Automatic annotation (TrEMBL):
InterPro entries, sorted: Aminotransferase_I/II_large, HisP_aminotrans, HistidinolP_aminotransfase, PyrdxlP-dep_Trfase, PyrdxlP-dep_Trfase_major, PyrdxlP-dep_Trfase_small
Name of this chain's protein: Histidinol-phosphate aminotransferase
Protein family membership: Belongs to the class-II pyridoxal-phosphate-dependent aminotransferase family. Histidinol-phosphate aminotransferase subfamily.
EC class name: transferase
Quaternary structure, from the entry: Homodimer.
UniProt organism field: Telmatocola sphagniphila
Claim: Transferase is one of the keywords in the record: yes
Domain of life of the organism encoding this protein: Bacteria
Length: 347
């Protein structure tokens, strides 16, 4: 193809989880929240639809959302950058910090988008194995010429969580900016927002999971104001539309609703693990809204395919350096009952 960049021609591209818009399908493959967004979100969007905002450009920095986030999280509004989902935040970070030929490093297995971001940027991509029991590796394992280090915490696909104090000590020895990708942090026992005060740390957050807004596309970054100012230079002028900004502002302020749905998800996650283990799966203890399930007695891809035949979607994932597994999102109790019943019949 004329003019096509060689690195783009070579790359496979990121593959999202399968999307089937059929209410009869139990969708446990993309870690969506099984409960609807806050009622305040619907009220706020309705007000926008009946007003005059849609014909005008949105406020480019999302100042109203940033002020709401400041009230809820206690973070300086100048330390917040809005994004069209956390994937947009990760793209902005790559464009800001990684030169062509630079190096992106992450742990393995982890979020596969990081590799795609490196390939798009024309950068080198390197993975480093987790330490024992999903711990951090030695600092010496991270190359000194690393341009940026991505750390998903909780991690996907494992759902494992690394203690924040251990992350802080690890970051201290690294030669590069560190992104703590907290797409699932609201389901964990702690978070890294306090580390965003450090001069080389950026925390990335998503509204797709705990806020139940995967369809609206909103995320944000938290870092020192000087870092945010540099990221603003490379973001799209209006990267968040009026509806996403409105929904995000309403959602982040309804803390009681988020706490309620979080409690339901954690309770279901708690009962899923022993039920899946009773069916022969090795289940990694999770602090996210999904479970990573493996087997030593048989391949799991046929189980994934059999579930799909029963109109239940889970995520089959395979890693060259780690093997295969099923990542199963936490659904409603009724959805999980159906999953467990089908698995019992299959296995």
């Amino acid at each position: 193809m004329i003019g096509l960049r060689p690195n783009i021609a070579k790359m496979a591209g990121y593959t999202p989880g399968e999307q089937i818009n059929d209410p009869a399908v139990v969708k446990l493959n993309t870690n969506e929240n099984p409960y609807p967004p806050s009622p305040r979100v619907f009220e706020a969007i309705q007000a926008v639809l009946t007003g005059d905002k849609l014909r005008k450009y949105p406020e480019p920095s999302g100042i109203s959302f940033r002020k709401a986030a400041t009230r809820v999280l206690g973070i300086d509004s100048e330390s917040i950058l809005i994004g069209n989902g956390s994937d947009d935040i990760l793209t902005i970070l790559t464009r800001t910090f990684v030169p062509e030929g630079g190096r992106i490093v992450t742990l393995t297995p982890s979020y596969s988008l990081y590799k795609s971001l490196a390939e798009i940027q024309g950068a080198r991509f390197q993975t480093v194995a987790f330490g024992p029991n999903w711990s951090l590796p030695a600092v010496s394992a991270i190359p000194p010429d690393t341009s940026i280090f991505f750390l998903a915490n909780p991690n996907s696909p494992s759902g494992t969580f690394i203690d924040i104090q251990k992350i802080a000590a690890f970051i201290e020895g690294l030669p590069c900016p560190v992104v703590v990708d907290e797409a699932y942090a609201d389901f964990a026992e702690d978070n890294a927002l306090r580390l965003a005060k450090l001069p080389k740390v950026i925390v990335s957050r998503s509204f797709s999971k705990s806020m139940a807004l995967a369809g609206i596309r909103f995320g944000y970054a938290v870092a020192q104001p000087e870092i945010i100012q540099e990221m603003i230079k490379v973001k799209d002028s209006y990267n968040c539309d009026v509806l996403s900004l409105t929904a995000a502002e309403a959602a982040i302020q309804d803390t009681a609703y988020v706490t309620e749905t979080r409690s339901k998800i954690l309770a279901t996650r708690e009962r899923m693990q022993p039920a899946l283990e009773a069916l022969g799966f090795q289940v990694t203890p999770s602090q996210a809204n999904f479970l990573w399930c493996r087997r030593s007695d048989r391949p799991v891809q046929p189980i994934y395919e059999a579930l799909k035949q029963q109109r239940i979607l889970v995520r089959y994932m395979q890693y060259s350096d780690y093997g295969e597994g099923l990542r199963i999102s936490v659904g409603t109790d009724a959805e999980i009952d159906r999953l467990l019943s089908c698995l019992h019949d299959i296995i």
